[in-house]
Design a protein that fits this description.
11 helices; alpha/beta; Rossmann fold; 7-stranded parallel beta sheet; 385 residues; 4-stranded parallel beta sheet
Length: 385
């Protein structure tokens, strides 16, 4: 019999994991649960649950772990906080499966190497699938688009409730971090003066701040155990992925507080670094960042300012800007005009064709390199002539 372990970091991640547990139950597949939290409030009485006192004790078990599949929504396994099985022979080590607990961009909101430790990644949609494939070695990790199980259909009969849901993101500069505590309390006061009933859904990793807020007698906050989006008139957040879940489930208003955007990595920089690692000279172009250093290269304001010969112009700009870039590429005599995922323009294609420039659109240069050229000499066909 196969041994399957589902790792639920703490009780706040149980609801994200439950749809996958339901699938296992429906298929009559036995599983165990590993956790660092208290799961007694959930109906899992008939399951084997191993509760670890701390992360150190957990890692001791994970290093020696022998099972067939290890399923979790915790990113960075084997790279950050949580260990992977290392002592056992490779054939006895588990297959590591990751599923998402948010719809935010993996390019912008996760640290580097967050997804490299998994054998299988269950993606919520095609957009995230394409972004994940940009970040990983697609020859080692299988990415499967399965949908997002936490989205609920909109109730057409939902009524106004006078309830407001506030849901911060996690990490530095979320809307009730120390940097924004005053603004947050001002927001609470405004809402209370308008006779709104305020519900606070903290990020699962940010319970400590919630405790502090509840101790503040000037704030009258409700902390629901479960979130039913239909019970709220609107949502207030910063950059939390709950904004997408709320909007797609209810089609109601989402208000964003102006906190610094949490961009950990720009796709252009990820692709640039990858191509550099395979021997390419990559020159970043950005008129708004001239002189800055990205991945060891100085940013140039425009294609016409580059002194070296350019073989490929790789575009990470909106489709509407593609024709203008195509004209610039033609002037400098480039061989290839490459437009990344989601970018295409017929006029740009026409300009490229007239100038005998190879035109490629709606594809990622990094992914194509991984699929075709990684095992051979790293030279694109366009550069062989």
């Amino acid at each position: 019999m196969r041994r399957i372990i589902v790792f639920i970091e703490n009780q706040n991640y149980f609801n994200f994991t439950k749809p996958y547990l339901d699938v296992l139950e429906k298929l009559s597949i036995e599983y165990e649960i590993f956790t660092l939290g208290n799961l007694e409030i959930f109906d899992i009485k008939n399951k084997k649950v191993s509760v670890f006192e701390n992360q150190k004790m957990l890692n001791k078990s994970l290093i020696n772990l022998e099972c067939d599949y290890f399923i979790t929504t915790t990113p960075g396994i084997g790279n950050f906080y949580f260990a992977k099985s290392k002592i056992l022979p490779k054939k006895k080590r588990p297959k590591y499966i990751y599923f998402f607990h948010s719809l935010v961009s993996p390019n912008e909101n996760y640290a580097e190497n967050s997804f490299n430790g998994y054998d299988i990644i269950l993606s919520p949609n095609n957009t995230i699938t394409s972004q994940i494939e940009l970040l990983i070695n697609i020859k080692k990790t299988q990415v499967i688009t399965v949908g997002y199980q936490n989205l609920k259909r909109c109730d057409k009969n939902s009524r106004d409730t006078n309830n407001v849901l506030i849901a911060p993101s996690w990490g530095q500069d979320n809307l009730f971090s120390d940097n924004f505590n005053k603004q947050f309390l001002n927001l609470i006061e405004i809402l209370q003066n308008s006779e709104k009933k305020i519900f606070l859904r903290p990020h699962p990793m940010d319970i400590e701040n919630v405790t502090k807020l509840r101790e503040n007698k000037n704030t009258n906050l409700y902390l629901p155990n479960k979130i039913d989006f239909q019970k709220f008139d609107y949502l207030i957040t910063d950059w939390s992925g709950i904004s997408l879940e709320y909007f797609y489930s209810t089609k109601k208003i989402v208000g964003f507080l102006d906190t610094p955007k949490k961009i950990k990595r720009k796709p252009a920089n990820v692709v640039m670094k990858y191509m550099q690692d395979f021997g390419y000279k990559v020159i970043p172009i950005n008129p708004n960042a001239e002189g800055e250093i990205i991945n060891g290269e100085q940013v140039v304001s425009g294609l016409d300012k580059v002194k070296e010969k350019i073989d490929i112009v790789d575009v990470f700009r909106p489709s509407a800007e593609a024709p203008g870039i195509a004209e610039q590429a033609a002037k400098i005599g480039t061989k290839v005009l490459w437009l990344q995922y989601g970018i295409h323009h017929e006029s740009a294609e026409e300009i490229a064709n007239k100038q005998n420039i190879k035109y490629i659109s709606n594809r990622c240069i990094k992914q194509e390199y991984q699929k075709i050229f990684q095992k051979s000499n790293p030279v694109f066909p366009a550069l062989k002539n």
